[in-house]
Amino acid sequence: MDFEPTAWSCSFCGRSGADETRYAAGVGALMCTDCLSSFSEAFAAPENASQRVLGWTDDSMSDADMLARLPLIAATAGQVDRYLRLWVARIRERHISYAEIGKALGVSRQAAWERFSRVVDPTKDGPASADSTNDSANDSANDSATDPSLTV
Ligand SMILES: [Zn+2]
Question: Residue 22, Cα to own-chain centre: how many angstroms?
């Protein structure tokens, strides 16, 4: 999977990537190397030995800090959704049906198709094309060819 650091942001500090930015990738989340170092040091510190999670609490934040974090959380949620769509696109490149994708997500084939069938532009947060009419016919044909349960 090609990766362009400038098209993504750190899920922990919210900073946008630069050409030289490196990330540790999780399940839709990205951690820049600065945050990786910072969290490693914080977890190693004796005063944090009993902390189950670092960076989660709002106890020391002002109201302004709470509000300032809000758009970062929303941006992270959008980025995770974009990653999910890219992941599904990669699955579709393997000719795996929307029935199987829906099953993996615990939703119907139709729900999976409605959510993921639009073309994904990796530089945008949303679908690049709203023209799903042709996609629907092609995907239905592809699903019928690969998913025997749809041919009954
Ligand atoms: Zn970061």
Answer: 17
